[in-house]
Amino acid sequence: MRYAYLGPAGTFTEQALLQRPEASAPDAERVPYGSVDAALAALRAGDVDAAVVPIENSVEGGVSATLDALATGDPLVVIGEILVPITFVLAARAGTTLADVRAVGTHSHAWAQVRGWMSRRRPEPTYVPTLSTAAAAAGLASGDDSPYDAAVCAPVAATVHGLQVLASDIGDNAGAVTRFVLVARPGEAPAPTGADKTTMVLFQRADHPGGLLTLLEQFAARGINLTRLESRPTGEGMGRYCFSIDVEGHLADERVGEALMGLRRVCADVRYLGSYPRADRLAATVELGTSDDDFVAARDWLHALRTPQATPGQAGSARAG
Question: Which among 24, 149, 196, 311 has most CB atoms closer than 10 A?
Fold first, then answer.
């Protein structure tokens, strides 16, 4: 098995990938790519069997590059998720002091999580965006022509690239967590566990008052809890948005299946992005009247109404005739 991930070596994405037993096996090959788009393009092309990419951060919310890449192009599906606690260090080349730092390189999501610390300790430095936190460390270690003097990165990236740590635990949120997803080409979904998520992207037929409410009612009427809801521009013009959504439950659950059917009726398109086990193993909330048995019983009741059985008297009259 070949696994793509957002590289280079030392990224939080690589840490997430290594948490998957199948990806950390001796015979597994882990291939770093320079961007989320490149990793998913390799998956679509068949160059790798699966890919791990960041999708959500507890501080900054959704990772737009991943949300947009999954919402467009050839279909891909999520088959698993990984949660990684995030700890940042400020790293520099040997001999650099905190007072020497004039510019700091890192990924935009990382910078958002250390802005408070930087403003208190070093308010002057310029922020230089990089493709990943590990790329910031690698760029700094590669030579003297780096446009920044220090990098915000994972501790492992500083070690891998031989950098000196100027400060540790510099994040503004001690409980920061990033959620990563394991993505594959379409196939059979992982079996339901009772603690699952389903991810989808919904496209409206037209922008109109109550449009989002119409979509949300499909979930509310069936007792389905949403764990993430984000709007993303479709690129078709101002005000044109799609909605990227995670819900509790599995495609095999009656309530989720019926919600998808309802959405298929009212949406211009529904892109199903997979059902998979939750990383936190929290069981889905099943409200009264929304269990599989409840939906099956209701369907059987309706079927009986549509196909009434003949009474004994009617049957006798038919034989006599």
Answer: 196
**Where are the domains positioned within the chain?**
1-86+176-187, 89-168, 188-321
Q: How far apart are CA 205 and CA 78, in angstroms?
A: 25
Tokens describing residue 138: 């690698």
CA distance 42 to 50: 9
Class of 89-168 per CATH?
alpha beta
Q: What is the pLDDT of residue 123?
A: 80
- Residue carrying structure tokens 């003297």: 144
Cβ(168)–Cβ(155) under 8 Å? yes
Question: What are the per-10-residue average pLDDT scores of the chain (321 residues)?
Answer: 92 93 92 95 98 93 94 96 95 93 92 91 87 92 87 93 94 91 96 97 88 94 96 85 96 97 96 97 93 96 88 54 48
Q: What's 48's DSSP letter?
A: S
Task: Give the integer Cα–Cα distance in Å for 44 and 30.
Answer: 16
CATH of 1-86+176-187, one of 1.10.10.10, 3.40.190.10, 3.90.550.10, 3.60.10.10: 3.40.190.10
Task: Please name which of 141, 116, 98, 97 lies closest in space to residue 9, comparing C-alpha atoms.
Answer: 141
pLDDT in tens, 151-169: 999 999 999 999 999 999 9
- Strands 2-6 and 29-33 turn out to be parallel
pTM: 0.85
Task: Tell me if residue 192 falls in helix, strand or coil.
Answer: coil
The answer to whether 231 touches 201, Cβ cutoff 8 Å, is no
For residues 62 and 75, what is the distance between their CA atoms, to the nearest angstrom? Answer: 19
Alpha-carbon distance 14 to 29, whole Å? 12
